[in-house]
Amino acid sequence: MSTFSSHNFANERALIRVDFNVPIKNGEITDDTRIRAALPTINKVLADGGSVVLMSHWGRPLKDIEKNPNLTLADFSLKPVVAHLSKLLGKNVIFSDDCISADAADKAAKLQAGQVLLLENLRYYKEEEKGDKAFAEKLSKLGDIYVNDAFGTAHRAHASTAVIAQFFAKDKRMFGLLMESEVNAAENVLHNSKKPFTAIIGGAKVYDKIMIIENLLDRATDIIIGGGMAYTFFKAEGGQIGNSLCEDDRMDMALDLMKKAAEKGVCIHLPSDSIIADRFAADADTSSALSNEIPAGWMGLDISNMAIEQFKKIISTSKTILWNGPMGVFEMDKFQHGTKAIALAVAEATKNGAYSLVGGGDSVAAVNKFHLADKVSYVSTGGGAMLEYFEGKELPGIAAIKD
Ligand code: AMP
């Protein structure tokens, strides 16, 4: 496998799969994080004297139009990205309004060194998500070399994220810088972790995280379980959890996990106490209780002081930390304390030399909310992809480049 950094792109047309699925309201980009994340890759190709063809999906045009006939393809256009990207790159970006048209082929063929072409939304074609080979082949003609820099879609076997790679020789397909750093961070944690390795798993549902925990049983030293999912474990062990979130049909799974962890010598830590509320509301009345003695009519919405101290101690002695999922309903001020304390503890451990990776939607939102994103070793941009990676699955977008 070639590496992007060592490749010289002079006089080559790099076909780069990026993730420009950014929020756009009234034609304005409201958060350009994903576009900025692709800039180092684009700039390296241009600096080498190459040219760039960018392709991305945006939203779910065909599915949404089916549900709402008032929508048209134009509502899902990548065109608003052109002006913004031009500003960020300091040069005019060319646009083609159909990713596999003669116009796209013509514009790609005429690209000069230093020029950038953006293709219209790949998902205008159902073939993209279907992983259609003929569609992938048409796209492949638009570049001399394929660069995948869209980690966020690496778990999908789509035409532009996986299938297309087969049309490029091994030394003509590679990860971009963003993808490379995501893969390195994930591999650092899953395959090269220094012990003790603590996984902090939170969030709402046991079902969503069960496979991650199972996979981590062979790798982690300690697994901290917080958030709404913890109460299914408490109830399964015979505790009283009041109205707390609970998946009754997952209680056996929870007990099975505890048993497997004990057999493998992995310590599972549940939060000993909780902040409880009389309602699921920002202005609810609150109190605290042992997490397995929550009175009827109350629900656990955050971890409380004993649990915070218990978890902080484990985190402070860890050399590798993986964090996915908040410890409570951190979106509401009254229930953010536990998640914030854990974020601070992870930041402190990182300062003291631990490697910390925060991955998966809401824990990323949490470190951003508490302005701690630059105090951890790596914050993943790939929500679903990172989760599947932690579940131990092979991601099609990674496999296609490596195989
Ligand atoms: P997930 O997407 O599974 O990581 O879950 C994140 C969501 O879980 C966030 O929106 C939190 O508000 C929610 N959450 C965390 N702790 C609790 C809890 N104790 N009860 C209800 N929801 C929770």
Explain how this protein is built.
The chain folds into two domains: 13-180, 3-Layer(aba) Sandwich (Rossmann fold); 193-371, Rossmann fold (3-Layer(aba) Sandwich), CATH 3.40.50.1260. It has 15 helices and 19 strands. It has helices at 33-48, 61-67, 79-89, 102-109, 126-130, 133-140, 177-190, 206-216, 230-236, 251-264, 305-316, 337-351, 361-369, 383-390, 396-402, and strands at residues 13-17, 24-25, 28-29, 51-55, 93-96, 116-119, 145-148, 173-175, 197-201, 222-225, 240-241, 267-269, 273-277, 286-290, 293-294, 299-303, 320-324, 355-358, 378-379. Helix 4 (102-109) links the parallel strand 5 (93-96) and strand 6. Helix 9 packs across helix 10 and helix 11 (305-316) runs parallel beside helix 12 (337-351). It is elongated. It starts with 12 loop residues before the first strand and ends with a helix. The mean pLDDT is 95. Residues 203-205, 208, 227-228, 245, 300-301, 325-326, 328-329, 331, 361-362 line the site of adenosine monophosphate.
